[in-house]
Design brief:
Blueprint lengths: L1 H35 L4 H21 L5 H28 L8 H24 L2
Amino acid sequence: MLWKQNVMQTRRRDLVQRSSVFSGRLLRFTAIERKRGVIPHSLLQQALRAGTAIGAHAAEADSAMTRRHLIALRAGALREAREVVYWLGLIDQSRLCAPDSDISWLLGEANELVAILSASIRRLRELP
Protein backbone atom coordinates (compact mmCIF):
# COMPACT_ATOMS: atom_id res chain seq x y z
CA MET A 1 0.00 0.00 0.00
CA LEU A 2 2.88 2.39 0.77
CA TRP A 3 4.29 1.83 -2.73
CA LYS A 4 0.90 2.72 -4.22
CA GLN A 5 0.78 5.94 -2.19
CA ASN A 6 4.30 6.89 -3.32
CA VAL A 7 3.41 6.29 -6.98
CA MET A 8 0.23 8.37 -6.65
CA GLN A 9 2.15 11.23 -4.99
CA THR A 10 4.81 11.11 -7.72
CA ARG A 11 2.12 11.33 -10.40
CA ARG A 12 0.48 14.26 -8.60
CA ARG A 13 3.81 16.10 -8.41
CA ASP A 14 4.42 15.38 -12.08
CA LEU A 15 1.06 16.93 -12.93
CA VAL A 16 1.82 19.98 -10.80
CA GLN A 17 5.24 20.37 -12.39
CA ARG A 18 3.92 19.85 -15.91
CA SER A 19 1.11 22.34 -15.42
CA SER A 20 3.62 24.79 -13.93
CA VAL A 21 5.81 24.56 -17.04
CA PHE A 22 2.69 25.02 -19.17
CA SER A 23 1.67 28.09 -17.14
CA GLY A 24 5.14 29.61 -17.48
CA ARG A 25 5.17 29.22 -21.24
CA LEU A 26 1.59 30.51 -21.47
CA LEU A 27 2.54 33.54 -19.41
CA ARG A 28 5.52 34.25 -21.69
CA PHE A 29 3.32 33.78 -24.79
CA THR A 30 0.65 36.18 -23.53
CA ALA A 31 3.25 38.79 -22.52
CA ILE A 32 4.84 38.69 -25.98
CA GLU A 33 1.49 38.85 -27.75
CA ARG A 34 0.30 41.73 -25.56
CA LYS A 35 3.38 43.73 -26.53
CA ARG A 36 2.66 43.02 -30.20
CA GLY A 37 -0.89 44.31 -29.67
CA VAL A 38 -2.50 42.26 -32.44
CA ILE A 39 -4.57 39.74 -30.46
CA PRO A 40 -7.30 41.28 -28.29
CA HIS A 41 -6.17 41.48 -24.66
CA SER A 42 -9.44 39.94 -23.47
CA LEU A 43 -8.71 36.70 -25.35
CA LEU A 44 -5.18 36.54 -24.00
CA GLN A 45 -6.45 37.20 -20.47
CA GLN A 46 -9.09 34.45 -20.73
CA ALA A 47 -6.48 31.94 -21.89
CA LEU A 48 -4.06 33.00 -19.16
CA ARG A 49 -6.64 32.73 -16.39
CA ALA A 50 -7.82 29.29 -17.47
CA GLY A 51 -4.32 28.00 -18.17
CA THR A 52 -2.83 29.05 -14.85
CA ALA A 53 -5.85 27.71 -12.95
CA ILE A 54 -4.97 24.17 -14.10
CA GLY A 55 -1.82 24.25 -11.99
CA ALA A 56 -3.58 25.88 -9.06
CA HIS A 57 -6.18 23.09 -8.97
CA ALA A 58 -3.49 20.43 -9.40
CA ALA A 59 -1.43 21.88 -6.54
CA GLU A 60 -4.48 22.12 -4.30
CA ALA A 61 -5.33 18.50 -5.10
CA ASP A 62 -2.10 17.45 -3.38
CA SER A 63 -3.76 18.31 -0.08
CA ALA A 64 -7.15 16.74 -0.80
CA MET A 65 -8.65 15.18 2.30
CA THR A 66 -10.71 12.49 0.59
CA ARG A 67 -10.92 10.79 -2.78
CA ARG A 68 -14.16 12.67 -3.45
CA HIS A 69 -12.38 15.96 -2.76
CA LEU A 70 -9.49 14.91 -5.01
CA ILE A 71 -11.91 14.08 -7.83
CA ALA A 72 -13.60 17.48 -7.44
CA LEU A 73 -10.28 19.30 -7.63
CA ARG A 74 -9.13 17.29 -10.64
CA ALA A 75 -12.49 17.98 -12.29
CA GLY A 76 -11.90 21.71 -11.73
CA ALA A 77 -8.49 21.42 -13.38
CA LEU A 78 -10.09 19.50 -16.27
CA ARG A 79 -12.69 22.24 -16.80
CA GLU A 80 -9.94 24.85 -16.92
CA ALA A 81 -7.86 22.72 -19.29
CA ARG A 82 -10.80 22.38 -21.67
CA GLU A 83 -11.40 26.12 -21.47
CA VAL A 84 -7.78 26.97 -22.30
CA VAL A 85 -7.95 24.58 -25.28
CA TYR A 86 -10.93 26.59 -26.50
CA TRP A 87 -9.25 29.99 -26.09
CA LEU A 88 -5.92 28.88 -27.56
CA GLY A 89 -7.74 27.24 -30.46
CA LEU A 90 -9.60 30.46 -31.14
CA ILE A 91 -6.36 32.45 -31.02
CA ASP A 92 -4.66 29.93 -33.31
CA GLN A 93 -7.54 29.97 -35.82
CA SER A 94 -7.34 33.75 -36.01
CA ARG A 95 -3.81 33.45 -37.46
CA LEU A 96 -2.87 36.60 -35.55
CA CYS A 97 0.01 35.02 -33.58
CA ALA A 98 3.61 35.79 -34.32
CA PRO A 99 5.06 33.16 -36.69
CA ASP A 100 7.55 31.96 -34.06
CA SER A 101 5.02 31.80 -31.22
CA ASP A 102 4.48 28.85 -28.87
CA ILE A 103 0.82 28.43 -29.85
CA SER A 104 1.25 24.95 -31.36
CA TRP A 105 3.15 23.67 -28.33
CA LEU A 106 0.64 25.27 -25.95
CA LEU A 107 -2.33 23.74 -27.74
CA GLY A 108 -0.68 20.32 -27.83
CA GLU A 109 0.24 20.45 -24.14
CA ALA A 110 -3.23 21.69 -23.16
CA ASN A 111 -4.79 18.77 -25.04
CA GLU A 112 -2.41 16.37 -23.27
CA LEU A 113 -3.36 17.86 -19.91
CA VAL A 114 -7.03 17.28 -20.78
CA ALA A 115 -6.24 13.64 -21.57
CA ILE A 116 -4.19 13.15 -18.40
CA LEU A 117 -6.81 14.73 -16.17
CA SER A 118 -9.65 12.81 -17.84
CA ALA A 119 -7.83 9.51 -17.31
CA SER A 120 -6.99 10.42 -13.72
CA ILE A 121 -10.61 11.21 -12.88
CA ARG A 122 -11.79 8.05 -14.60
CA ARG A 123 -9.31 5.93 -12.60
CA LEU A 124 -10.22 7.62 -9.33
CA ARG A 125 -13.91 6.97 -9.93
CA GLU A 126 -13.25 3.31 -10.71
CA LEU A 127 -11.37 2.65 -7.48
CA PRO A 128 -13.28 0.60 -4.91
